[in-house]
Design goal:
Blueprint (H helix, E strand, L loop, with lengths): L1 H16 L5 H19 L6 H22 L10 H16 L10 H17 L7 H25 L3 E10 L4 H4 L8 E2 L2 H9 L9 E4 L6 E5 L4 E8 L2 E11 L6 H29 L2 H24 L3 H17 L4 H15 L2 H11 L5 H18 L10 H8 L14 H9 L1 H19 L7 H20 L8 H18 L3 H7 L1
Antiparallel strand pairs: 1-6, 2-3, 3-4, 4-5, 5-6
Helix pairs in contact: 2-3, 2-6, 4-5, 4-17, 5-19, 6-10, 9-10, 9-11, 9-18, 9-19, 11-18, 14-16, 16-17, 18-19
Amino acid sequence: MYYVLYTMLDKIRQTASQYYRRPSDCFDLVIYVGFLLFVFILPFGYATAILNASLLLVLFGWIGRICHERRFEWKRTPLDIPIAVFLLLALVASLFAPHPATSSLGYFWKLFRAVLLFYAVVHSRLGGRWRHVIITFVFAGGFSAILGLYFYATGTHMGTAYMFDIEAKLESHFSDAAYHNEGVKVSEDLRQVYEKNGRRLSQNAIIFPTKKYGDWLIVDKNQNRKYAIRKSEGQLKVYMIEPRLAGTFKMPNDLGAYLVIVLPMAIGYFVASLRSSKQSGRVPQNWKFIAVLGVLLCAMGANLTLTLTRAAWIGVFAATLYIAIYFQRKLLWGLLAIALLSPFLMPQAVKDRFEIMRQRPSGFMSERPQWWKTSAQLIAKHPITGIGLGRFRHEYQLHAPAGFHHKPYHAHNIYLHIAVEQGIPSLILFLGILFLIFRQLFALRKRDDFWCSGLFIGGSGFLISALVYGLADQILHQRPLLIFWFLVGVVFYVSNLDNSSAERVS
């Protein structure tokens, strides 16, 4: 591991020292650094500005190289025509939405930006340095997961769910808490406000001043609940603090979606390490690398569990089961051991989550069937052009029956969501794109190289994980959308990379 990191840094130094002789190398270095920064900053949800800066670095290097060489070199891929048609249909869906005034082209730009990232990787000229990008990608996920465990242990960066608003005139009931180290009891007026909004506070509920979750914190030990109170727009907003880890992200589901992608990739290289050690007979030389990967996997697995994101659990489990059956059947024993020990080791919040799954679901789980039913109705109403990108929430509020409280931003199913917002032709095209990605990915299985083997195992695992997760949630939005197309770009770049030239560059 240390040798690989040293090699990566030394390669940056060598390339930088040669830029005056080969100006194109300078732009290649900018692209390379941009990719490294991009994959490292991905798990830090509050660092959006740095994420955008990394993408601008990649774009600057790509355009700068084209201008310097005075030629535009286009590397064709099997996805070129399907992607072009898919983008065209997305644009048509946005322009011809049922209510154009409420349609946002910003969602089309996000999709277009992700596709640009795919082509930036394909045209990156990384050579063997693509391995450094993968190392950084996995290391960043592990580093973020270790921070996540620290946050969970200290009770910070937990999930919050918005409940209701409180009138600003009730702020005096909270202000007194600032002058009492042990907090103050909740007043009867405030308790009545909670009851009117369907929440009940016990007589021993205490208000504390805090900067960790907002302005004030209500701790109700009798009911094992905490509420964050925050000032916003002349009102006080009440949030329930959930026992769900958000880690370095803003929301637990965002962390879960990220781990759905990075965990199978890490598992893929872990399995490839075990296989290469066994085949080469150089077990002692690889154990340090395997041990580091094992620690990172444990940290990421613990984070995944603590997010309480059930769809992410199922997605990663499906990917791990696939990898275990086809590549390393000894992992099945590990899965069995985890299943047997988990009832004794998992936190109470995780046990409660499983209990909710066993009983009648509540909250989002109970309303998902209605979201899917409304999605089917919208598809039947607009089967060709859809309702427009980013418009699901608006249309759902117009068509949902009375008595449903949640107003989702998406259909919580990527297949229904694409059909709803872009039309059935876009869904068919998307399934065709997935087929082409899998076909390109399986071309890597013929490579004997460790890094290609890990990319094949982890890449196929990440696709299975993401697509299974997509049955119950929307993974192709925000950062996961960028990660998806970035990794697809790596797959197409590496599958078309000549082994001998890769070895010379690395």
